[in-house]
Every structure is written in structure tokens, then in C-alpha cells.
Amino acid sequence: MSVAFDVRVDPPYPVRIGPGVAADVAAYVPGDAAILEDANVATPHGDAVAAALEAAGRRVVRLPIEPGEVSKSVATWESLLRRLAQVPFDRSVTIVAVGGGVTGDLAGFVAATYLRGVAWVNVPTSLLAMADAAIGGKTGLDLPEGKNLVGAFWQPRAVLMDVGALATLPDAAFREGLVEVAKHGLLADAALLEAVLDGTFGPDADAAAWTRWVAASVRVKADVVAADARETGGARATLNLGHTVGHALEAASGHALTHGEAVAWGLLYAAHLTHLHLHPETDGRDAARRLVRRVAPSPPPDVAWSDLQAYLRRDKKNRGGRIRWVMAPRPGAARVVEDVPAAVQEAAWEAFVEDVATLRDVRAVDRPERDGGA
Ligand code: GLY
């Protein structure tokens, strides 16, 4: 059982989701293949992709990448380009990315730039990459001055989400991915949100449930990307729900908080801000609290609102020095809001801090049970 649909950009490309779909990789690789793979998942995922390509008669060169954000560097990018040139591969090569978000971002940028652009196929192996980075063609690198400051929109030829890979994912990494899935639920799919919050979609579910809910999450992102592929309108910016304060907390913690943990807290802040600014009938704060309980993020850093301002001012959505906030008063109603008074932003922070204290108590009770079951 698998699900397939197109991401409707120009040209459209297929996403296939289900157990075992990576075994069909050769259908999307007509000639030589360079597999750029996270060294941590070379066995078994890279091996399986290489074996499928070799069985179909493709010439395969495997290029392992050191795991972690450190690989999204100009130095790693240059060394991969040089290795492709040394083989040498011509323009008929297909780059095949096997790994998480770092691998996909880097491999996609290698594909965007080698010989002025060659085709690539993405085989994401983490839930975070399936839910977010693998859809939408954002590729790129970090600079010492900041993350993702170099890059290109370069859409893949196909994305193969083999949910079998989720069975090998550590529990904490699964929970991180669930945060982006819940974000898509908050943006546009109430049933998806509930599946995360009640545990129907989680590490203990089966491959059929993983397929169904990963597909639901991907559909939300794919629809947004189809409406605003290059983030020139407001639609794609809504995918940043929870990320404004999330990124600030991640940076203020010195990256002790993972991205997913920081965004979970960022979603709680966004719910408080939406409550105070838009007074929606539905109470998004409750969903955000349930999400925090479900994914049990490490506590946010103990910082004052004023300490976060330097980070908030650098947010990539800002225009003309004004912070642009994403608010999702209910699924289907997400939008970017620019005119939020400073006093409301600060009041939302105070309410958030009070909430964090309550949730910490809850987590202290919840955690032993969760860790025992992990
Ligand atoms: N991760 C947000 C985007 O792809 O636009």
C-alpha cells in the first residue's frame, strides 16, 4: 500500500509514500547515479537504494556525507562537486539524496549547481525531512554568518518517502518530526493535528498509519508550495508558523534545543499571540499544550523577552524592519500578520512563560512513563 501524487509546480513532480517505495528508485534514474548519503544511514538505506539501482543496470557512485549541519558548508559542497567532476559524470547523471534534511539540502544544491544543474531524486529517511525539507525544492548551504544564506530553488525529479525508514528512527527524532507534522495540521488539516495529539500517528503506529499521515502532512505542504513556489506571495511564509520565536529560542539556547523542540515551544507562543491579537473563537493554546505534552521538548532557555529581540529582528520574513507573525486561528485560516503591537507581543510572552512553568510540572509526571516505553 502506497500513496502517490504530484507537487504541482512547473514542472510537476511525483511524491510516493509507503513502505518499500525506495526500491523503485531506478524508475526515476535513467542513467548514471551519484548517491549522496548521510553516512549514518548508508546501512541499510543507502545500501538498499544502491542495490536497486545496480540491479537495474545503473552505474552507481556512492558519496557519503558526514552527518549533521556541519556538512551544509561551502567546503563540503566544493569537495562533492570535485568528486563528481573527477569521475567524470556528464549532464545525464542523477543525484540521489539518501538521508535527512541536511543531506537533501546539500545534495539538492549540488544538483542545482553541477554543470549548471542536473536532475535529482530525494529519498528522505527522517520524519522531519519527509514532513518538511523534502518538499518544495529549497536547497542550500550555511555560511559562518548564518544558516541557509546560500541556495537555490531546484525541484527534484521525484521524492520517494519510504516509511519503512521510520522504524529505524530514534524516538527523539520521531518526536521532532511530529512537530512539523502538527504544524501542518494547525495550518490546514484538523484530522492530521488530532492524529498527532492523540498518538494515532506516532512511533508505535504501523506502516499503514505512517503512510496515511505522512501523506496528509505532505499534501498540506505541497498545496502551499504549489501556490507560492518561490515564496514571493504570503502563502509559503505561513509554513513558518511557530518558527519566529522557535528560531529565536533555538539560537538563544546555543542550539541546546533541537529545531523541533524549539518549534514546539514556538507554536505555543504563536497560539498565545493569536489568542491575544485576533481573539479567535477556537483556542489554539490547548492544541499547542497537548503538542508540548506529546513531544516532551527540553525546557526553553530562561531568557527575557528583551533578550530575544536581536534574534527576532533577523527573522527572514521581516520586511522594512517589521516582524511578520504567522497566525493560525483555526485550520484553513493561517495568515501573516504585520501590525502586532509590541505590548501584545510582550504580553503573549508573559502568558507563554507562565504556561511553560505549568507544562514543566506536567512533563515531570509524564516523562518517566514515556522514557520507559521508548
Ligand atoms: N520549510 C519551509 C519551506 O519549505 O518553505
Largest sheet: 7 strands, mixed
Counting DSSP E segments of at least 2 residues, the number of strands comes to 11
Enumerate the distinct ligands.
glycine
Number of helices: 12
Q: What is the structural class?
A: alpha/beta
Strand order of the largest sheet: 1-2-9-6-5-3-4
Shape: globular
* Quaternary organisation: single chain
CATH architecture of the largest domain: 3-Layer(aba) Sandwich
* Span between termini: 27 Å
Strand residue content: 15-25%
Number of domains: 2
Our Rg estimate from Cα atoms comes to: 20 Å
Q: Extract low-pLDDT stretches.
A: 368-374
Q: State the helicity in percent bands.
A: 40-55%
CATH topology of the largest domain: Rossmann fold
CATH class of the largest domain: Alpha Beta
- Overall mean pLDDT score? 94
Would you list the SSEs in sequence order as H and E? EEEHEHEHEHEEEHHHHHHHEEH
Give an overview of the whole structure:
With 374 residues, this protein is of the alpha/beta class. The protein folds into 2 domains: 3-184, 3-Layer(aba) Sandwich (Rossmann fold); 231-364, Up-down Bundle (Dehydroquinate synthase-like, alpha domain), CATH 1.20.1090.10. It is 47% helix and 16% strand. The chain has a 7-stranded mixed sheet, sandwiched between helices. Strands 7-8 form a two-stranded antiparallel ribbon. Helix 3 links the parallel strand 5 (94-99) and strand 6. The radius of gyration is 20 Å and the shape is globular. Bound molecules: glycine. Glycine binds next to loops.
